[in-house]
Structures are given as structure tokens and as C-alpha cells.
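hey so u asked for the seq, here:
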Amino acid sequence: MPEDYNFWQQDVLPYEPRSAYYSAEPFGAGTSAASPFGGGYSPASQQYWSGQYGNVMNQYMGELGRSFRAGEEPTMSFVDYLDQYPWTERYTSMSPRLRPGGTTSRFAPSVRRFY
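ran it, C-alpha cells below
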């Protein structure tokens, strides 16, 4: 790894939350059946997570608030929060209709009535 990699990892990502978010697990390198050339998650999943930055940030701020209320010093950075965030569990727990491009026709086909 180049020397300046540590600079970006340790000094930039903690202070650039959007960079940390969009380089997190759903957008990172990896392979899947849906995307064999990188970006370990399916395109629909990536589309969903690309619009969820505000929600994930609000959840992180809620965790910080809980730490403050408990009288603890918050030690988890946003980067650490993203590393432990349950991306797959959150996405798969949604109903198919709520997912991008999701329909329920595969699970509940339309009914035809012949009169």
C-alpha cells in the first residue's frame, strides 16, 4: 500500500462522513452473483443504500446521544459505526415492495377474474 493510504484511512475518513459512507460495505469492492465485477451488493441494494445516508447518520447520532445520556464518553467514530452496521440484515428484512424496483407480483401474483 502506498504511504498516503494511511493518511486517507486515519485522517480523512473520520472527518468526511459522506466519503466514509459511500466507501462502506454496500459500495465497496467485492463480488456477488448480481455484480461479479465489484461492488459486493446487487444494483438494487446499492440504489437503496445510496439514498439512506441521512437515515444511517441519524441512527449514528442516536447512538452518540444514548452514550451521552448514559454518562459515557462516546468512543465509536462514524467509520467504526459503518463497519459494524448490519447492512444485509436491514435490507433483507424489508418487504419486496419497499425495495428499489421491488414488486410483490412474484410473491403475490395478480388475480384474474373471468365473468
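The helical segments are 3-12, 17-22, 43-50, 53-69, 78-84, 87-92. Residues 40-97 form one domain.
lmk if thats what u needed
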